[in-house]
Amino acid sequence: MVHEFTCIVCPVGCRLRVDKGGEVSGHKCKRGIVYATEETTHPTRMLTTTVKVNSRVAKRLSVRTSRPIPKAAMFDVMQALATVEARVPVNIHDVIIHNVAGTDVDIIATRRLAT
Amino acid sequence: MTWDIVVIGAGAGGLSAALAAQDDHVKVLVLEREAVLGGILNQCIHNGFGLHEFEEDLTGPEYAERFIDAFHERGIDLRLETTVMGLHETRNGFVVEAFDRRAGKLDIQTRAVILSSGCYERTRGQIRIPGERPAGVMPAGSAQRYLNIEGYLVGKEVFILGSGDIGLIMARRMTLEGATVKGIAEIMPYSNGLTRNIAQCLEDFDIPLYLSHTVTDIRGADRLEGITIEAVDEDFRVIEGTKKDFAVDCLLLSVGLIPDTMVLESLDVKMHPHTRGPKVDHTFHTSVEGLFACGNALHVHDLVDDVSEESRRAGRCAKDYVRKSLGKGETQLELIAGEGIAYTVPSTIDLSRFDDLIRCAFRVKRKAQTATFKLIQDDTVIASRKARFVAPAEMEHIDIGPDDLKGGHAPVTLIMEV
Amino acid sequence: MYDYLIIGAGISGTLIARELSRFEARIIVVDKENDVGNHATLANSAIVHSGHDPVPGTLKAKLAVQGNRLYHVLQKELDIPLRKTGAFLLVQHQEEIPGLERLHRRALANGVETPALLDAQTAKAREPMIQEGTLAALDLPSTMVTYPWEVAIAAMENAMKNGASLRLNYEVKAITKMEDGFLLESTEGSRLRSKVVINAAGTFADRIAAMVERDVPYRITPRRGEYYVLDKAVDGFVKRVLYPLPGKNGKGVLVVPQVHGNILLGPTSDYQDDKENVANHAADIEKIRRDADKLAKDIPYDKTIRTFAGVRASSTYEDFYIEPSKEVPGFYHVAGIDSPGLTAAPAIAKYVADTLLDIGKHYPRKSDFDPFRTKTRAFRSLSDEEQRLKIAENPRYARIVCKCERVTAAEVVEAIKGPLGNDTLKGLKKRIRAGSGLCQGGYCESEVLSLISEVTGKRPDEIDYYRKNTPILKQETKVGR
Q: What is the ipTM of this complex?
């Protein structure tokens, strides 16, 4: 399978192609090759989203993954968060869920909600 | 009680300006309409903030918390849930007319004011999209608030007009929350968003981007039922025979932001026709003595890091103004946006206070792979800088110092050569 | 059993109800919408014309001139906004001069107050932003502007105060003639009986009439009019209503200062089959600009905050059709009320009560009729001292919800709960202007929504934007899908 995507390493935005054998083309610099290889072998993303919270000032608490998760796991994590409710007070970077959806990554709060 | 400086708005701009303005001798009061500090950053839950300011990749709320922590540590005076409705000049400053949810109507005396009230979104009416007017058409930022703060999706089948970063970010957010985003239309032949957002917000979810397209019809008597997009030529005229219909229940508009300067209504402030914020000199002083402006209330920024940096300078200038009683100088050197430049901030340089390098912000009119920016005074190039990948959506900067000036008080023009 | 049932809670229906409520009769107004004044009354030029335009001798001419005068009475009694702008009708070409003179004569014949022909210099001195090249003007000083939604709301509130009833969300499905009157049935199966039925159903008048009559004497030919709204920051750009010379499609595109300081540009005039579709069209948006530029120079289009369209209930009958049914006694038409319908409405109401129905013959006057409506004054219009008193009374006056129009949380709550309360975003916008400003609700909408939710107990996603089934929000997230 041939993968085709935009390089995000710099503003040039090269259109990268990675063929079946892992050969990269379309890059204008070496950093593009590294990115392309990562993207095709183990693409990861930082997931930022929200969970329910019983706060006076917001109905949702903003959260993120403690580090990037496999791209393919994004919707599994979203699913796991659909039933979670955080309780105030919440401090920034409090762990809301440990090892979410078996990713070995935590979900942490990105804001403080005292009440 | 009389304050030295009242800061209107406690978002990225106001927090940064207040931190820079306050010290043991300068009494600063911050007024914020919401119940919490941080402004729009609270709903910008995605990451990508702070790469310049902290050399870290933070989410909006995390970025705000850094400033909020510092703000509380310093014990700066604050009124939350307080809306400023007017500013009135007095002999030695201003009366700020404010409504505090708990304390009622307040007339707050101050020597100086920093306006950091942010911006508002352009609406459907302002860009005059034809069609019916059903529910389900709304600015992307409003939808972002409903989703990230209130916990509601504004639609399940979504189309987005405008490919700026807010539009791209919302495409991903709504998809993750279970909506189907059927496409984004952009009237320009290129996206105004960051490459990274094109890749991670659109390509990751196979959301099509229709460049050189715009929305030409909106249908639905009650709730939105569908829209039509059409291709446009270089002059943005619709090309016949390019209609595409989409059945959607929601159209988000990401079509621009405008500085919110409503509280200036009663003052005679000179406004900038392009930025639609006030005109300022290099000390962020508006045409009204004692009134300073920064952040998105001055001109709309694309990076919050730039807002913080600029507002810090504005805060310092306002502090100097009250501490050293530095009034507006007699001689204001004009800074003109010349060929290829949409606008500059500042609009003028106050020569009586021009003693150090200043950082001039500006936007280009066109996209270019490489460009040279030149400052010209009396037909002489007094400073220049080369740049790669310039675009209207990305704010540029150029430094200018007192030693650069060769032609006395003659205006300085900034141009772009491609 | 009601004595009078009025179908349609637009400006005509509500003012008729108020006029009838002066008498000891049982009165009800029904409307298929969830608020009064949701169709033609909602979207028009808001002008109280002088009455210069209709052909002398017609009902339109007579009732427009009378209506214009009656607005002064309504202002005192119902506390409605009225701005005495005056108007100039402008011409730019020599060949238009005879037309201008003809209109002057027509205005005099109709009994319009002090119409006058002005040369270009005089007109320019009084209205500096009129277009260069203006040749002459017809001065129509009795022209005014009002706030049509509020007139309908005020009229209905006052009618209700005097005993009339209102049934919203009542869409008439069938009307049956009975021995002693009529039986109405709604689409939801709700029945109402009345001795007399007055058909003031606007664009739907022919459809309602066909439920009763075999040969309806007119057909409604809806005409769409499109508009621009400029922000109130342009207040004073022109002081007067500016008209061109009327054409075969009506009065043409106008420049109209509004009571709150906005300026309207429009309307266009296009026939359409659809009775309700109020879409804007790209070609009309262009036409408005082209035509408005003929009247005024340097129009600040960059201050546009909205475009909208309305549908006029024009009919195949040239004049207003205000007649008893020729087939069925007790059924009355108030149909074909297009321009100058808003102007004529107070006179239409009197004409219907006194001439058409001759109500005084059947029912005695109420001794305790109260013609006055006391309006809660907008917080923004109060003095500093009054504002402080209000806040002391109710702290929610200190919470500004809509910054553009200075609307407080207390006012939002009152408008939801009021005598003719409404819990839609548009309904509140009509009543207190929350969301009418520059940001068009971007700033206040979510707070208004949560106030509606608080007062009514509705979930945020059950709250409508305007009509039924127009929620702003689609679905709550994180509900354990």
A: 0.94
How is chain A split into domains, by residue range? 3-41, 48-109
CB contact under 8 A, C388 and B131: no
Does the domain at residues C87-141+221-312 carry the CATH identifier 3.30.9.10? yes
Partner-chain contact A59 B149, CB within 8 Å: yes
C-alpha distances in angstroms, A83 versus A35, A53, A103, C124, C480? Answer: 35, 11, 17, 69, 5
CA C462 to chain CA mean position, Å: 28
Element (H, E) at B183: strand B180-186
Enumerate residues 6+ apart whose C-beta is below 8 A from C274.
Answer: C222, C311
Q: What is the pLDDT of residues C158-169, one digit of tens each?
A: 999 999 999 999
Selection from C352, A108, C434 nearest residue B61 by Cα:
A108
Which of C39, C49, C52, C333 is catalytic? The answer is C49
The answer for residues whose C-beta is within 8 angstroms of residue B244's C-beta and 6 or more apart is: B210, B213, B228, B229, B230
pLDDT tens per residue, range A52-95 = 999 999 999 999 999 999 999 999 999 999 999 999 999 999 99
The pLDDT-based confidence of B194 (bands split at 50, 70, 90) is: confident
| Two structure tokens written together for B118 | 């942010």
Across the interface, of A51, A60, A82, the residue whose CB is closest to C481 is A82
What's the pLDDT at C23? 98
CATH 1.10.260.40 fits C2-41+149-219+316-361, yes or no: no
Q: Which CATH architecture has domain C379-462?
A: Orthogonal Bundle (1.10)
pTM, two decimals, is 0.94
Q: What are the tens digits of pLDDT across the range C238-284?
A: 999 999 999 877 889 999 999 999 999 999 999 999 999 999 999 99
Q: Which of A5, A46, A71 sits opposite B47 (nearest CB)?
A: A46
Q: Is the Cβ pair A81, C481 closer than 8 Å?
A: no
Q: Which of B178, B179, C478 is nearest to A82 (CA)?
A: C478
How many A×C Cβ pairs under 8 Å? 16
Burial (Cβ within 10 Å: 0-12, 13-18, ≥19) of residue C384: exposed
The CATH-assigned architecture of domain A48-109 is Roll (3.10)
Contacting residues of B for C478, CB less than 8 Å apart = 151
Q: Tell me if residue C281 is catalytic.
A: no
A52 contact B CB<8A = yes
- Residue B355 is predicted with a pLDDT of 86
**Is the omega angle on the peptide bond into residue C364 within 30 degrees of 0, that is, cis?**
no
Give the residue from B305, B398, B415, B392 showing the smallest Cα distance to B349.
B398
Distant-in-sequence contacts of B237-243, Cβ < 8 A, 24+ apart: B238/B214, B238/C282, B242/B213, B243/B216
C-alpha C371/C-alpha C349 separation (Å) is 14
Chain C residues with at least one Cβ partner in A under 8 Å: 477-481
pLDDT of C346 higher than 60: yes
Inform me whether the C-beta atom of residue B239 falls under 8 Å from chain C C-beta atoms.
no
Report yes or no: A65 and A47 within 8 Å, Cβ to Cβ: yes
For A48, the closest of B35, B45, B68 (CB atoms) is: B45
pLDDT of residue A96: 97
Q: How far is CA B369 from CA A11, A23, B307, B396, in A?
A: 10, 28, 26, 14
Say what percent of chain B tops pLDDT 90. 88
Confidence of residue B98 (pLDDT cuts 50, 70, 90): very high
Q: Is the dihedral of CA B368, B370, B375, B376 positive or negative?
A: negative
Among chain A residues, CA nearest to C477: A82
AA identity, residue C398: A
Contact at 8 Å (CB) between C309 and C279? yes
**Which chains are within 8 Å of C by 3+ CB pairs?**
A, B
- The answer to whether B147 faces chain C, any CB pair under 8 Å, is yes
- The domain limits of chain C are 2-41+149-219+316-361, 87-141+221-312, 379-462
